[in-house]
Amino acid sequence: xxxxxxxxxxxxxxxxxxxxxxxxxxxxxxxxxxxxxxxxxxxxxxxxxxxxxxxxxxxxxxxxxxxxxxxxxxxxxxxxxxxxxxxxxxxxxxxxxxxxxxxxxxxxxxxxxxxxxxxxxxxxxxxxxxxxxxxxxxxxxxxxxxxxxxxxxxxxxxxxxxxxxxxxxxxxxxxxxxxxxxxxxxxxxxxxxxxxxxxxx
Length: 201
Prior knowledge:
The protein is mainly alpha-helical and 201 residues long. The protein has helices spanning 8-21, 26-38, 42-54, 61-77, 81-94, 100-112, 115-126, 145-156, 160-173, 178-195. It folds into 2 domains: 8-96, Serine Threonine Protein Phosphatase 5, Tetratricopeptide repeat; 97-201, Alpha Horseshoe (Serine Threonine Protein Phosphatase 5, Tetratricopeptide repeat). The protein is built from 10 helices and no strands. The model has no long low-confidence stretch (mean pLDDT 94).
């Protein structure tokens, strides 16, 4: 992921020049498409990232998956949730051994209120216990996020013990996050009431 300390205004023209001079360079094409996304230029981002995927040299599954993930985010930003979901599943199929595509589907499921999808994708993501070590690893995928979303989705499905357990894991990753601590307290209370046969919250 790009260094936020470096001025973005300098990156884009250089990346455009690199892609223009080396149109068969898959890495240059991926970086340019990703940069268009960061600028909110969604149409050129989609076009460029699809070019990246079409290049014969674009064989690295993790980078191809990331490219598909950015395409999905472009479609979501444009309000096309059907295409966003389709591209997220393509990203997952391309590289199912990294957490990033699972987190993408988790977030989409959360926004749509699709709790079974959110929970299933969160759990699949959690099952990956080693990151790839590549420059494409996103820190959010290895923090509290999957456990947080997993907890919320489990709670909404009435799986209170699982919700509490995931909330605890989320708090372990971010012990100073007041919202996570509040969620954990709520889920512990709800589980206790459920175990006692109390009325729903």
